[in-house]
Design a protein that fits this description.
single chain, mainly alpha, Multidrug-efflux Transporter Regulator, Chain: A, Domain 2, 2 domains, elongated
Length: 147
């Protein structure tokens, strides 16, 4: 399938397709200097890339998992655990916001429950920041090219 057809059918810009090819996520069937052609399963591969990115994987991590479509199950479990932790933190933040909206205290900082929720949220945010800083070699993903 021609690059223009892929872009039209999938909504992924040609520039992103070229970038993905440069990163090794896609392979063109055309020879060097010819117009890029992709296999019929290109839409599925693009869907897998999008799913990986939506799950928080970097493009390099997605690329590593797409080699022969062998998925590193431990990597998936680790990412699911990371998402679960983030969900819990977001739920605590949501409770804090709801409490603040309904709290009878004039000064929210005087409310013991709000103080506790604020400390939990801050601890979670600091812990997450420390987690990202303590993982050498885990760079954030490159621009996806999505607009």
């Amino acid at each position: 399938m021609d690059i223009a057809d892929v872009a039209k059918r999938t909504g992924v810009p040609a520039s992103t397709l070229r970038y993905y090819e440069k990163k090794g996520l896609l392979t063109s069937l055309a020879g060097r200097g010819q117009r890029r052609q992709f296999a019929a399963d290109i839409a599925d591969r693009l869907a897998l890339i999008a799913l990986g990115q939506a799950s928080g994987f970097s493009l390099d991590e997605v690329g590593a998992m797409l080699v022969d479509l062998q998925v590193d199950r431990q990597m998936l479990i680790a990412k699911a655990d990371e998402i679960d932790t983030r969900v819990k933190r977001l739920q605590a933040m949501s409770k804090g916001l709801r409490h603040a909206a309904q709290c009878p205290e004039v000064d929210h900082l005087a409310c013991p429950k709000f103080q506790r929720l604020m400390k939990l949220s801050a601890a979670g945010a600091l812990g997450e920041k420390h987690l990202h800083q303590s993982r050498p070699g885990k760079a954030r993903s490159q621009p996806s090219g999505r607009t």
